[in-house]
Write a structure and sequence with these properties.
By secondary structure, the protein is α/β, with parallel strands linked by helices. It is 40% helix and 15% strand. Helix 1 packs across helix 9. The longest helix has 20 residues.
Amino acid sequence: MSNAIYTEITNQIIEQVEKGAMPWVKPWRVDASADKNIISQKPYQGINRLILGMTSMLRGFETPVWGTYKHWESLGAQVRKGEKGTKIVFFKPVAKSEPDAESNEQKGYAVLKGYWVFNASQVDGIAIMKPETDNNAFQDVALAEERIVKTGAVIRHGGDAAFFAPSADAIQMPNKSSFDNESSYYATIFHELTHWSGAKHRLDRVFGKKFGDSKYAFEELVAEMGAAFLCQDHGIQGELRHAGYISHWLQAMRDDSKAIFKAAALAQKAADYINQLDATQEQIAA
């Protein structure tokens, strides 16, 4: 791929961010494999999607159903002795005891609370069926699929979150049929593969330690640009679905006029690295 094309895509990203890109919308729908609560049957939201998705990946849970100890107990089930729970969070509304002095309205606030849940795989006395996956409506893009396989990356499908987990050196993706369209799926998986390329034993980029810090923000910029480059390489058409996501880092780019060019160079290096991988089936199986 020529540097002129990379430059064109880089400028497109800058233009969208400068104009105030759309708020980020995840390009997939919640399906039967999303992590949900056993009592309410509602999928978990926000950061809890990521927490439970990563826990399932790291601990090998295949059933996306969770509940507190009391939830399982109320259904006649029992959390096995010695099983470790997973801490998730919720915002508990709290009303002020006194009305607001200016408006005389009873205002309140929210307090972040944590609680522990257990996966169905950690419980005895109840049968939970694993969700069936139907990807019949999804049309694979052969060139992109071949490239993804040749990376040798460990990629798992299911749930309601997309991420690369450095500790497991693996990528988690929602099911293909959950995505709004094929281009959204490939843009997302190329984004995660760009993160994957930055692992210490590959290109050794600095990921950042928490959401929102400057190094984390910069890595997200690299991953989004890498995804755009890889989509172009493999004939994947579509808008920059994640452009709004990097709009939060516009100030950082303004503070460092070279940041966007550094990110573009690293994204190109990542795309080149991914495009030259040629893992064999034997290497992937190992």
